Amino acid sequence: MASLVLSSLCFTSHKPCSFTSSLRFSFGALTGSRFAAPLTVGFRPEKRRNGRIRVSVYSRASPLVFRDLDADDFRHPLDKQNTLILKAIPGLNELGRALLGTVTEQIMLLENIGTSVLVSKDQLPELHKMMIEAAGILNIESPDLYVRQSPVPNAYTLAISGKKPFVVIHTSLVELLTRNELQAVLAHELGHLKCDHGVWLTFANLLTLGAYTVPGLGAFLAQTLEEQLFRWLRAAELTCDRAALLVAQDPKVVISVLMKLAGGCPSMADQLNVDAFLEQARSYDKASSSPVGYYIRNAQTRQLSHPLPVLRAREIDEWSRSNEYRSLLKRATQMNVVEKV
Predict the structure, then answer these.
(1) 189 is catalytic
(2) What are 166-224's pLDDT values in tens digits?
(3) CA angle, corner 128, sides to 20 and 11, nearest 5?
(4) Is the pLDDT assigned to residue 36 strictly greater than 50?
(5) pLDDT for residue 66 is more than 50
(6) How far is CA 308 from CA 27, 166, 178, 242, in A?
(7) Closest Cα to residue 226, out of 206, 252, 198?
(8) Three-class SS string for the chain?
């Protein structure tokens, strides 16, 4: 299978209007449109001094580290199920190779790194430390991190054969989320890499787009693949929310990210209430429990690339209280100060 990988985490999704935008998948979808721009996540700095962002790297106790963490340790059951279905699609690998080549890889690579700032220990070092710490917690090699100027809160991941994968975050993310919330977003993106989601995100997307050009059954084939793709995408996002929780180690941090992306802004951030958002999620479940409500709910979510944020919030709240999550915490060890540096 070809190796270009692109995943993102946005709450607004759009039907792709160009080849480049079609490779971008989002963190969450709020509308009925089907494909999304790259991940949308921002963070509000905890301190500002002389107009510059000041973030304390040691703003929380030393987190737990998962030394031997495997992707299947936290993969959502629906992710496992739908991944097997995708792998069983005849010709997916071959068609993926045909649709994707070195030119496409270079377009995506140059577009992203040519318009962004590369984060390092000497460039936005606080962000660099957050990424290094999150990767260490999840037992994965840290990708490069870029910051890109954009009014749309977003983040996404790109991996190309023979090159180090990288994550891109938009500047508006910085204005919306706290430090811990932003790190949870980075962890969500790392979850895609940890679980090899990007391969299926990219190739299934390209396969779907390419199928429309096949004479005769092309449109039918594309529609069938789209439905399966979206089922898998929604499940994959639930897995990556779990990765975010493993790094944040506080479900309210992850739920707060979902809440702010659903309806938050910097000026109202301190008035948002996670518990009220969870109650909103429960009310949605209640309203959709009737036969009519169940039908409407399925119709509402069937063509979304991401689960509704209230449902994701409920899922992460339930998993945080599960024996599976508690068992993972028992296996973890404390990250020491040297590792954090």
Answers:
(1) yes
(2) 899 999 988 999 999 999 999 999 999 999 886 666 665 555 555 555 555 455 556 66
(3) 40
(4) no
(5) yes
(6) 10, 26, 22, 16
(7) 206
(8) CCCCEEEECCCCECCCCCCCHHHCCCCCCCCCCCCECCCECCCCCCEEECCEEECCCCCCCCCEECCCCCHHHCCCHHHHHHHHHHHCCCCHHHHHHHHCCHHHHHHHHHHHHCCEEECECCECHHHHHHHHHHHHHCCCCCCEEEEECCCCCEEEEEECCCCCCEEEEEHHHHHHCCHHHHHHHHHHHHHHHHCCHHHHHHHHHHHHHHHCCCCCCHHHHHHHHHHHHHHHHHHHHHHHHHHHHHHHCCHHHHHHHHHHHHHCCHHHHHHCCHHHHHHHHHHHHHHCCCHHHHHHHHHHHCCCCCCCHHHHHHHHHHHHCCHHHHHHHHHCEECCHHHHC
What does the alpha-carbon distance between residue 41 and residue 169 come to, in Å, rounded to a whole number?
A: 7
| CA pair distance 152, 41, nearest whole angstrom | 8
Q: What whole-number distance in Å separates Cα of residue 247 and Cα of residue 50?
A: 30
Query: β-pairing, 5-8 with 333-334?
Result: unpaired
Distance CA 149, CA 237 (A): 25
Rounding to the nearest 10 degrees, give the CA dihedral for residues 112, 117, 123, 126: -70
pLDDT tens digits for range 266-322: 898 889 999 999 999 988 888 777 777 766 767 666 666 678 899 999 999 999 999
Nearest alpha carbon to residue 37 among 66, 76, 8: 8
- Do 194 and 226 form a contact (C-beta atoms < 8 A)? no
Dist CA 242 CA 226 (whole Å): 25
* Beta-bridge partner residues of 8: 156
Which residue among 189, 226, 237, 315 is the active-site one?
189
Residue-averaged pLDDT of the chain = 76
User: Which two three-digit tokens encode residue 94?
Assistant: 């071959």
- As a whole number of angstroms, the distance between CA 278 and CA 258 comes to 11
Number of residues written out for the chain: 341
What is each CA distance from 4 to 89, 100, 103, 282, in whole angstroms?
19, 8, 11, 39
